[in-house]
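Schema walk-through. Below, the input block comes first and the output block second. Nothing else is stored per chain. Lengths vary across the set, and this one has 223 residues.
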Amino acid sequence: MMKEPNRLDRAEIEFFKEIQSLIVKTRTVKRASLKIRKICGVDAAYSPDGNSVAAAATQIVDGQISETSTYSGTFSFPYVSGLFYLHEGPFVVAAVRRLKETSHLVCFDAHGAAHPNSGGLATVCGRVLGIPSIGVAKTPLVGKEIFYRNGLNKIEFENRFVGYVTSKPKRYWSPGYSVSLAELETIICSKTGEDCAKALQYSHTSARRATRQNSSGQYQQFA
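--- output ---
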C-alpha cells in the first residue's frame, strides 16, 4: 500500500480520533451467546499508484463459500497513522453490504482492540455495519506477546490483554465490535477461526484480481 502525504489538519485528526473513541466505548453488546453460522472475511487491494482500491467480501455459510461481493473506488482521505478506518473503511464496508445475506461475524484484515486508539478499522467498521467483528492482521501494531499456551499467545498493551497471536500462520487477532476476548479465544480455537482465515484469503485473492482487471480496463467500477 502506498502511503499518501498527510493532508489532514491537526484539528481534523483529533476530531476523528474522538469519533473513534466514542465508537470504542460502545464496543460490547450484551447477549446470551454469540452464535456464528455465516462468516464474512473482507480485504482490499490497491492500485500501483495507491489512489484506487478494490475491496472484496467473502461469505462462508456452514463451512462453505456461498458468495463473494466486490466494490471498487477512489480514495479521498489520505492514509493517517491510527486513522486507517477513514482510508479503507468505506470500501470494505461497501463490499460487505453488497452480500445478499447478513453475516453473523465479519473478519477484517486489520486491527481491532490491539490498536493505539484501542479500536482500529475492525472495531469502527463492525460498529458501522452493526455486526460483531474481529481484526485478523498479518503484522503487529501495538503491545508485546505474552506466552499463553502452545500455538497461542496473548497481546499485552498498556497493562491490558487486547488480543491473541497465533503461530501457524502468524496472525494478530483482536476483538472488533461486540466480541469479547473470551469469545475471540473460542473463535480462534474452533472451526470458526479456520473459516475466518479461509474467507480472508479468498477475499484477498478476489480483491487483487479485481484490482488487476480494473487497471486493464476490464473491471467495471461501481457507482
